[in-house]
Amino acid sequence: MCEFKVKVVARDGEVKVAGDIVYVKVDDEGVTLKDITGKPVKVESSLVSYINVTSEELHLIKHPLISAFLKLLLRLSDSNNAKEAQALWESFIKDGEKILTTTYSS
Prior knowledge:
This protein is 35% helix and 42% strand.
């Protein structure tokens, strides 16, 4: 069986967050990992960026905008209305500007 070592790449560097991972799921909050015992590890506001089965590595990219983007995609997939979709997009842009201002102001 193939178990993965998981690293998270963020603005402040790269860090190993889990080992022996056999399950990965992306939802509207980020990524849920489970090891061979079924123990979950939640990495919020992240996405899978790299998988290498040969070296058993899985990398996640983490950024505050990712969670907002995942929530936007989920809400858009539930919408059939162009006006509603436009409103969701505009809300994402407004929230994104706040996140960027907060993240890059220091």
